[in-house]
Amino acid sequence: MKIAFFSECEYAPGELKAAMRKAIRLALNYKNLKTTDPYEVSVIFVDEARIREINNDFRHMDKTTDVISFAFAEGEGSEFAPYLLGDIFICTDVVASHAAKYRTTFDEEMTFMVVHGILHLLGFDHHKKKEREEMRIAENVLMKQLFPQWKGRGEE
Question: Which domains does the chain have, with CATH numbers?
Answer without folding.
Answer: 2-146 (3.40.390.30)
